[in-house]
Amino acid sequence: MITRLDLRHFKCFRELKLPLGSLTLLSGANASGKSSVLHALGLLQQTIREHEWSTRLILNGVSARLGVVSDVVDQVYGRRECEIGLVYSDREYRWRFRGERSEMAMEVASVRAKGEEIDEPKVLRRLMPVHIDDDRLAKHLESLTYLTAERMGPREVYQLDDPQVAPVVGPTGEDAVSVLHLGRDEMVLPALRLAGRPPTRWWQVTARMENFFPGCGLSIEAIPHANAVTLGLRTSASTEFHRPINTGFGLTQILPLIVASISAKEDDMLLIENPEVHLHPAGQAAMGEYLVEVAAAGIQVLIETHSDHILNGVRRAVKNGVHPPDDVLLHFFRPRDESEGGGRPQVESPAIDAAGNVDAWPEGFFDQFDKDTSFFAGW
């Protein structure tokens, strides 16, 4: 498990050392750096997966499209360089990247792995020096799933790709139907299996979708002579299957998240932006509980959310003993304070206890409901 992410001169961060748990919840104001945390991991993953022998960090790929060096390097302090560091299985890894501000990739100026610092590496494989026998982190990042908030909407037809080409659901969920259909008979982690259904991917995904959308049913039909399928959805056992465009939009937005989590293996990592998208409040709370359950199954989950219902679902799951509170981390982000003396910290990390209580509520940390309702106190 990745237990810490370090950023230096990366986007809006002068320096950040962010602890990560088996479930980590990122919240805070817009443009405060939450997505930058996910982007850092996404850049490492897409470089490792798409450019195995590259000695450069690829800024534009399947997982993230961040533009040019000047869009990535902190413009106040960074100039031409930034750093990304990880602590994985108690080992520290660190990369220093350098590039001209108009370039769309950054060369690896140095890399630290297995206690060794290598400057100007000439040959790298999966961003690791080839003479260092340590590829566990690289494999961990390669299998990472990054599901963005901008997910693909309903489609008439869904492309099928070999699992080696599309091993995960993809950043917009574009490969979710392929992963579900081609891996329908794969066994699901025991801790994530719902009783009363076969322990395979198809039946467990269907059961989870029913939990969020009572009466939900799925149907996938192959299109003859094409590497493609159609997806049928229904919202009641008494109705026929319909095209996705004719069902609630939330079904196709949540399906990639369910497929990604049910398909994950132990020690995999999920990055999920806005898991609450297109869910009503009760569904959002249930999603928070579900993601704690996923983390308890041995899958590391990192979520960015604006939903207090997601947070409360997480708190409720902790109170119910689904997962130890020490393994659930909360981080609240605010825009960087450039005033003299530094002002408030850019990230605050309230703690959650076994009863689901949060020990501190920074200004702006899911307190808008109280602020809004206090307006009516005198009525």
Helix-strand makeup class: alpha+beta
Bulk shape: globular
Low-pLDDT segments: none
Question: Helix segment count?
Answer: 9
Query: Cα distance, first to last residue?
Result: 51 Å
**What does the main sheet amount to?**
7 strands, antiparallel
Mean pLDDT: 93
Radius of gyration: 21 Å
Question: How big a fraction of the residues is strand?
Answer: 15-25%
Count of distinct strands: 18
**SSE arrangement, N to C:** EEEHEHEEEEEEHEEHHEEHEHEHEEH
> Which range best describes the helical content: under 10%, 10-25%, 25-40%, 40-55%, 55-70% or over 70%?
25-40%
Account of the 3D structure:
The chain is of the alpha+beta class and 379 residues long. It has a domain of 113 residues. The chain is 26% helix and 25% strand. The chain is built from 9 helices and 18 strands. Strands 1, 2, 4, 5, 6, 7 and 8 form a 7-stranded antiparallel β-sheet that branches. Helix 4 packs across helix 6, helix 5 packs across helix 6 and helix 7 packs across helix 8. The longest helix is centred in the N-terminal third of the chain and has 17 residues. It is globular and about 65 Å long.
